[in-house]
Design goal:
The chain is α+β, with helices and mostly antiparallel strands. It has one helix and seven strands; from the N terminus they run H-E-E-E-E-E-E-E.
Amino acid sequence: MNFMRYYLISLFLFAISSLSAQHRITGKITSASSGLALRGITIKHIESGVASSTDQAGNFNLQIPSTIGMLSVSSVGYRSQTISAESGETYRDKAIRG
């Protein structure tokens, strides 16, 4: 009886930890016209609403609750874009147009 009880508690705790796991997406945003890194660009995971902005070197890092989804990339003076997002993916030199 105790074994079954401990087994069910362990199974429950594993299920909770799986649901709360965070997934990382990283990348770099550059200008399509000049190739220069862009700072202050907003990257938002559409499904969860989690957002971040690029640093001085154009790099970003998002911790999202799901393994897939869509990212919205936007900033004043540039066309907004929507790109597919997958957990663990690194987006290098994703260019946006003004």
